[in-house]
Predict the structure of biotin carboxylase.
Amino acid sequence: MIESLLVANRGEIARRIIRTAKRLNIRTIAVHSEPDADLPFVREADEAVCIGPANPAQSYRNTEAILAAAKATGAQAIHPGYGFLSENAAFARTVEANGLVWIGPGADAITAMGDKINARNLMAAAGVPVASGTAEPVADVDAAIEAAAGIGYPIMVKAAAGGGGMGMGVAADEAALRTEFGKVQAFAERMFGDGSVLLERYFPRVRHVEVQILGLADGRVIALSERECSVQRRNQKLVEEAPSPAITPELRERMKAAAVKAGEAVNYRNAGTVECLLDPATGEFFFLEMNTRLQVEHPITELIHGIDLVEQQLRIASGLAVNFDVDRETTGHAIELRVNAEDPKRFLPGPGKVVTWVEPAGEGVRVDSGYTEGNTVTPFYDSLLAKLVLFGADRADALAKARQAVAGFRIEGPKNNLPFFAELLENGEFVSGDYDTGIVPRMKG
């Protein structure tokens, strides 16, 4: 096992990784921007290095500063968390070229799955179901219109280099396609430096279901359970649960088998997630993308499997076998609520100083937080404040615990979306388990 670890991230996920590393007696190094100096993750690490100002390009995306901090502190390995540099193949290569251990998949796998067109074609060749769409980038809007005629409307317009719900639009007809194509292309060029666009069949009613995989040190790829991620705003997840209320045992086995094929196709190592769209009307599922990193929602998988995924990441990267029964059945039901610094109506960011922070507690209640009382939530980074995770004997029990925990979570200062969760947990569609990715827009009318 590695003996020292630099965490190239911030907030909740940095704190989460540090917690596991310390339990394993691994020395931890935090890197932080100037405005993050007082956050809990900085205080809880064994060492901390300031790597630059607020702008992520000058701090959390500053590869030179991060590598210099690793060298200065004698770190053996780097864990990138999620976001920032976690899916940056060039950074992964540079880390390893500098003699450090990269806690994640190989750079080749990151590259292969980072381009959505390449990933889609790789998955199709591996026998993983993909939705009908373009196998190559469409050259211009006229080519897009011609392709759409063969696929059929409505059409999903996607940035090939995008991910995490960014760079997507839906077109119901030719006029809308002309508009959305231009918007997505311009966004992709601005955000990713790559304006390549692909088209895919769009499902008006669809569920977002993903499968956790682990590429083991011995070369095998295994699939754990699935997660339901259909409660979203602007294609960004708000609530996840495991297991999915929509999945039958037979469908679960098919999805897990497809996820293993996906991992094997790129010789995957470490933790990753195969995201799929599920048509609830037919039971068909289609590959959406692979996230070549640890997911925000990993705690719900940990709870129903009784494992620590960060520990497994560290073991795999160290060349060790995982230390749990890979064939063990899951137990119970877990729900994660992403508590964000945003208003609960329009979901617009609402940073500010945390005046009151009182976390709920009790059996089956877990809070993975990035802040505490007295900290300031700045506008420079993602709005995630904490992940409120509930574990129950079954879904009804987990929902009951979620309602109680939401009522008991007090945050004053920055805006927060706890009132939205209180509303969602009483929503008949959500409570029934028969919901889809349109639930939040329907709630907001």
